[in-house]
Give the backbone structure.
Amino acid sequence: MINKPDDEQRATSNEQRFLAFDLGASSGRAVLGILDDGKLKLEEIHRFSNGPLEQGDSLRWDTEAIFQEMKQGLKAYAEKYGPELDGISVDSWGVDYLLLGKDGRALGLPYNYRDKRTDGVPEQVFSVVSREKVFAQTGNQDIAINTLYQLYSARDSEELRSADKMLLIADYFNYLLCGEMKGEYSLVSTSQMYNSQEGRWAEDLLKELRIPTNILPDIIPPGTIIGKLRPELAEECGIAKETQVIASASHDTACAVAATPLQPGWAYVSSGTWALIGVELDKPLINDDVLQANFTNEGGAEDTIRFLKIAAGLWPLQCCQKKWGISFDEITALAEGAKPFAARLDLDDPRFVNPEDMEAEILADCAENGQQLENERGAIARCIMESLAFKYRSVIESIEKLTGSEVKGLNIVGGGVKNKLLCQLAANAIQRPVKAGPIEATSIGNVLLQAKARGAITTMKELRGVVVDSFVPAIYEPKEIAAWDKAYERFREEDSG
C-alpha cells in the first residue's frame, strides 16, 4: 500500500502523481502512478465493470455510466491523496466512436464493435473502393469492426447527417474531462480512416465512400497536454483546477507497447480480450505481401509504427469462464491435466466473435472439421490456449517473412501474463524465450507517457528504463520442442488439405 505523504514530504521530494483511466471492453479502472527517483509504483484507486449494453436489437456502450465511474475514481483519489495531481489521461480500445451535436453533447450511446451491423460491410466498401486502394492509404488490417466500416454502415443515418464532430472512445472522455475535442494519433490510426503515408485523415477515401469529413477532429501526437480539468468537474470531484489533462496515448495497445521493455529483434503480444502480435518499426510497411497477410500499421509513441496482426485473444476463454462459473486458476488446472494437441481452432473465424454459447460453438466447429474434442472443460480450455500459442507462432513466422528480420524472442504484456500455462505454451510453440510482464503495461504506459509530457522523462529509452527498474518479468524457456513441431506441422497439413 502506498502511504499518503504529508505536504512537507511532497514538497521536498521529486514524487509526481499521475492518474490513468484504463478503459477495457470488460472493465475500467482508475490507476494511480507514483513516479519517484526513477521508480514507478501503481495503485488501483477504483475499478468498475464494463461491457456491451443491449439497446433494442443493437449492442452499445454505456458511456454515461462509464463517465460517472470515472468521476468516482477522481473523488476516491482526492479523498485519499488530496487535490494535487500532476496529470490525468484516458486510454481505451480502438475503432468505436461517438457522434456529437453542435452543443457538444453525444447523439446517443455509441455502438459496440461486436454489433452485427457491420457484417458484410467490408465487401460493400470494396465494391466502391478497392481493397488495394483502401490498404495503400491506411495500411490497416481488414476487420469488419473498424471505424471505416462502422461509419459506412451508418452513412445514411440521421445521426451521422446531424453530427458536428466524431470522437473515438478515449478521446471523447478526454474531451469530457477538459472540453477540448482532439483525435490522438495512436487511436486515430486504428480507424482505417487515417492516411499513414501522408500523416493525415484519409479524406479522399472517405469522400468516395460518402463519409463526412467535416466531423473529424484535429490529430495530435501522443504525449500532448490538451488542457486543464473543467472547473466544475474539478470542484465536484475535489481535484485542483490546474490539473492537466494529457493525451498520453489514447489507444490502450499503444500505451502497452510503450511500456514493453523490448529488446532488439523481439516481438510483443498485448494479451487481453484480443491478442495484438507484432513488432515496432520506424515507418509503415505497406506492400502487396502485407496486404495479403492482412497485417496492420498502427501508430505508437515517438512516431513509431506498431506493425501487427490483430487476432482473437482470451475472449473465447473469458466467455467459457463466464458460463462455467469457475475461476481462471481452476480452468488452468483443468487444462494442465487435459490431453495435448487434441484439436486446433481458428479463433479468428467470425463464428467466435459473439456466439450465444462459446462452448457449444467450439465443439460444433471441431465436429464439423473432423476433430475429436472431448466435451470437458479442461479439454476445451487447453484447445483454446494451444490454438492461441499456435497463432503466435504463425504470426511470428509471417513477421519474419514480411520484414526480413529474425524474431529472437517474445514479450507478452497485459492480462494474459497471469495465465502461466498460456505463457509456457507460447514459448513451446514459438521455440523462443518468452518474457511475461509487466501485467499492467497499459496503465504503466499511460502514466509514463504523461510523465514524459510533463518533462519528468525525456526519451523513450528512459521511459522503458523506468519499466525495467520497477517491474520484474517472468521468463519462460521452450520445452517439448519436437512434440510441438510435429503438432504444428500436422495442423498446417490439415488446413492446407
